[in-house]
What we know:
The complex is a heterodimer of chains A (397) and B (398).
Chain A: H1 11-15, H2 17-21, H3 28-36, H4 58-62, H5 69-83, H6 88-94, H7 96-105, H8 107-115, H9 117-125, E1 154-159, H10 161-167, H11 169-181, E2 184-187, H12 196-200, H13 204-223, E3 227-230, H14 233-245, H15 252-257, E4 259-261, H16 262-271, E5 285-289, H17 292-297, H18 302-307, E6 314-318, H19 336-353, E7 357-359, H20 363-373, E8 376-378, H21 380-387
Parallel strand pairs in A: 1-2, 1-3, 3-4, 5-6, 5-7, 7-8
Helix pairs in contact in A: 3-5, 7-8, 8-9, 10-11, 11-21, 19-20
Chain B: E1 5-11, H1 15-26, E2 31-34, H2 57-63, H3 75-91, E3 96-97, E4 104-107, E5 113-116, E6 119-120, E7 134-139, H4 147-153, E8 157-162, H5 169-176, H6 179-191, E9 198-202, H7 210-221, E10 225-228, H8 235-250, E11 254-256, E12 261-267, E13 270-277, E14 282-292, E15 303-304, E16 309-310, E17 360-362, H9 372-375, H10 378-397
Parallel strand pairs in B: 1-2, 1-14, 2-11, 7-8, 7-9, 9-10, 14-17
Antiparallel strand pairs in B: 3-6, 4-5, 12-13, 13-14, 15-16
Amino acid sequence: MNFEHCIRCTICVENCPVLLVNPDFPGPKQAGPDAQRFRSDREKSFDEWVLLCSQCKRCVISCPCGVEPAEIILKAQQIYGQGHPRSAAHLLFANNYYLSALGSLLAPVANWFAASEIGKKILRSLGIATYIPFPKFRFRTLRNEKKSRTKGIKKVAFFYGCYTNFYRPDIGRKIIRLLSSFNIDVVLPRQWCCGLPALGNGNLTLARSFAQKNAASLSNYIDAGYDIVYSCTSCGQAILHDYPNILKIPQAKKIAENTYNVHEYIVKLMDEGYIKPQFQEVRRKLAYHIPCHLRALGIGYPAAKLMSLIPALECDILDDACCGLSGSYGFKKSNEHTAMQIGNRAVAHIKKTGAEAIVSDCGSCRMQLGGLSGLMTLDPAEVLSEALGITEIMDRK
Amino acid sequence: MSVTEYDVIIIGAGVAGLTAGALLASRGFQVALVTAGEPTACLSTGCIDVCSGNHNPLAGIKELPDAHPFHLVPEKTITESLDNFLKAMQEMGIPYTGTLAENRLVLSALGTFKTSCLVPSTMKAAPQDTRDSIHIISFAGLKDFYPGYIISRRPNTEFSVYDAGVASTMGIAAHFEEEDCLERFISWLKGQNVSADRIAFPAVLGLESADKIVKMLALRIGKPVFEIPTIPPSMPGRRLFNALKDYFRKKGGTIYWGWPVSGVEKSGKIIEGVTTASKGRPNSLNGKSFILATGSFVGGGLVAGRETITENIFHLPVHVPGARETWFENDYFSFSHGIGRAGIIVDSSLRPDGSPLENIFVCGGILADTEILKNGCGHGLAIATGQRAAESCMECLR
């Protein structure tokens, strides 16, 4: 919808986590549709405050008129980025994929560096926040996994994304085992960063180049009869929304039609009668923090649906608060204060439930909420795996 | 084993839809609520108007024109539904004050009185006449509230300005949720040596803890404290929506956000499912029975074209009050614009008249002949018809 459909009702303003804690940000209505009427493609952009938007997309989902303030702001961020030099942090995070690949290759050294005082000092001098520990690189990434091929009921290509690959390949392996337990063939297609960090840090060219490479790879799998499954909700947001609408990737429509959130896919196979999972009791009290980008995908909360079928499991669904990290947003020193305050609000909601652990689909939500609360964090796939007797949840922080 | 097949699918997350949903979910039905965005209830004052034209709202309902949808709801259902509402809000920590036997007054941001029935506890201490003196606390930089409007209309009114360091309604409300900020404010307020009988605030006293904050302020200052509803962003409206939504989920309901319904699957006279054009593929949800609670024009339930008014999900027949020339009065501020009567005409079970569809029920602002502005019956009607629609659904599913 065009910005002119905005009726200025301020419902988006009420949903903006940044506005709530940072008075410098005028909110999605002013930064989005209100300011848009004064922006021209041919003029240099001066509204620096568009960079304060964390792209959580809560404004988009709340708008009753179908206006997409975050979308308008994202485009304004790109235009602002073209006319102004980017900070070191922006440049680094745009190239997150290459840095992470390097970090994994040098995992022991890189992890020591990021955790050391001197390392933190250097990171801070580059404008990178260190209020929560940097995630640990893993040497044995998911892409090195051997492919298993059986004659299953379905064939899926798993887009696991950078976070799972470089930092939590163990969760990636659990998702593969989970899908395999339903007799689904899982392959790991050749893949690059989804492009979201590059887009969010103002490097449209790099974002498009990642997207084109992914699109070519995924498109081949679709032609060969595979469904695409993703686990990271922000990768999902990029593939399903940004590829067709912002990056204008030619195969985007075909890919979007065949791409599923991993839990959405399981629900779909249950609905179609292909699988009948038998969940066993899980005696735990969990708080499910819904990632903003899952909310923005508009597919409901499929993992919540599945967890609701697990006997004895108590799971509160929390979707009112953003975690504040928003990928690389909170890792910038300039956003540190905002990200922490938003995160602390989310943690307060979680603590109120008395949950023993936090569940979230999104790696960056888990990093932030685990770091700020000290609670154990889990991927929904870990909970499902325990309920299906595939793997047990290790009681780790 | 289908996990996305529901007993009831409700379209619209406003007061009517959430009321219907909570009742159905609490009776053990599988309920999904789908919504395109957040409802206009967020923009409201949070007050539950039942029928503002009469000192006694229940008596007022009896005097409404014959076509008014309130007449389709038995009096017992009306009282029961509002009773349920009061209990639910108490449970969710935003208690309401008031009874169906008597309307009460809320001081508006213009210094006039608004008549309502059930009001948030934070507005309980609002004066019911012009005798008491009032001290208004205003906030530096807050654009959406001018105490001058009230002072020009009310004798014995004064004000002082507090600088919270933030200037937006949301920012100030979040500020009051922080204990140290609240303490700093209280010591400032004590220093003001207020002599007036009551202390008034624009409705910014907290995001979710307003009831506690107002009670605490009153106790510490030793004077009645109350909130004045403001223009959007309206905190009392947001608190109402959040409480209704959380209550619905607590009872077991599922909400699908970002779900503008774009298609309906039918088999003869029976609706089987609704679809939405999401990113990627169309999503679909199947249900046995449906409730339409999409509101009127602002909510998006009704769409006005040049000559006609349509309902664009089920394409139900819409009652259009005469030719376009009669839709609007010359006086912009009139309460009797003809368009206020537009909407869906229903039978006593709230099934749409003139439609072959059998398993759909309609409630809330989308109903015809409500004239909500004129009759002062918005949220009250939504609650009563929401409960009625839920009951009809249960009969239909039996």
